[in-house]
Amino acid sequence: MLQDCSTIHKPGVASPATCCNNSEVVKALHPLEVDLAPARPSALRLRNPVMPASGTFGYGVEYSQLIPLERLGAVVTKGITLVPWEGNPQPRLWETASGLLNSIGLENIGVEEAVADRAPVWASWQVPVIVNIAGHTIDEYVQVAEKLDGVAGVAGLEVNISCPNVAQGGIEFGTSPEMAARITSSVRRTTSLPLIVKLSPNVTDIVAIAAAVASAGADSLCLINTLRGTAVDVENRTFRLGRAAGGLSGPAIKPVALHMVHKVAHCVDIPVIGCGGISTAQDAIEFIMVGAAAVQVGTATFTEPRAMLSIVEGIQDFMDSHGILKLAEIRGIL
Ligand SMILES: Cc1cc2nc3c(=O)[nH]c(=O)nc-3n(C[C@H](O)[C@H](O)[C@H](O)COP(=O)(O)O)c2cc1C
After folding, report:
1. Each residue of 153-191: pLDDT tens digit?
2. Would you say the CB of residue 104 lies under 6 angstroms from ligand 1?
3. How far apart are the CA of 16 and the centre of ligand 1, in A?
4. Which of the residues 18, 74, 152, 216 could staple to 185 if both were Cys, CB 3.0 to 4.6 A apart?
5. Does the CB atom of residue 225 touch ligand 1 within 6 A?
């Protein structure tokens, strides 16, 4: 079903956003296969639509002894920056009703160590590895993308645009269509790798941002990142996290994520990866029915490391029991 996308804001970037049903994006694939970069033939074809959400699966190597990675559609790494980041003060995690608050602050090893030490391991796996990248300035994102371009073991980039732009007073890149488009086109010019842009839900009009990013050259979108939140310790009269605010994830945010994926998937003509509170196959199928081509699983992995495997199997079982031959048959039907 097509929706009214007439309110889409189109910034001054190349081709205008088109309004189409996402279900036509993936064609002629095996039942669970998905293509996350249809404009670059075979560049990012996944055997199934299930992958970890960035930051909840380390660099993949931490889980390689726990679960057979080749049964996932892809591995997505935690955010990687130009130089190593130390992250935020402790405590960094706080459990909430049906959710988790985190203020990790993108602690990571930096792109040089990632290329030298992790990429050779990724290259030996039978699963594509998508590297999530972050930065303080557009130039930092561009430099990270440059250093990952052509590296064996790197199958694609996921650009986290929820970071504060230090050149613009700390406003998140992902909060304005113009800034989101600028960062997308800058990284796009730098690399021939498939490009997923991961959107922030902390905005007033996510469709406008999605359209701007799609027009600026993203191959696919991922949404949503965490919702800003906080928690208070009344006995100690302090915040529960070392930094007052953090990002909320887990089942608590699923309805918000589903709604945003529904709105965006029907208004862009590139694949949308749904993320936010997915912990069962039924959750994943809900996202597919509202238009997602694939799904990411984050917080659920902390309580059940094999959750993604159950989700892959559960999607297949659902298709078998409902006589569905291809995921495309149910994608975007709502
Ligand atoms: C501990 C933690 C670390 C995260 N780190 C990143 C990150 O490095 N880059 C990123 O784009 N998103 C990061 N996220 C956001 C997740 O990838 C995901 O968008 C969010 O948690 C919602 O999915 P979920 O409800 O399945 O966890 C992180 C989330 C958590 C809980």
Report:
1. 999 999 999 998 888 888 899 999 999 999 999 999 999
2. yes
3. 30
4. 216
5. yes
Q: Please pick, among 5, 19, 20, 163, the residue that the annotation labels catalytic.
A: 163
Which residue has better confidence, 72 or 16? 72
Above 70 in pLDDT, residue 5?
Answer: no
Given a cut of 80, whether residue 7 has pLDDT beyond it is no
pLDDT at 25 over 60: no
Contact 55/79 with Cβ under 8 angstroms? yes
Does residue 222 have an active-site annotation?
A: no
Ligand 1, atom nearest to 279 Cα:
26
Residue closest by Cα to atom 22 of ligand 1: 276
pLDDT at 170: 84
pLDDT for 24 beyond 90: no
Ligand 1 centroid distance, CA of 88 (Å): 15
pLDDT(140) > 50: yes
Instruction: Determine the distance separating the centroid of ligand 1 and the alpha carbon of 252, expressed in angstroms.
Output: 14
| Smallest CA separation from ligand 1 atom 2, residue | 55
- The whole-number pLDDT of residue 30 equals 84
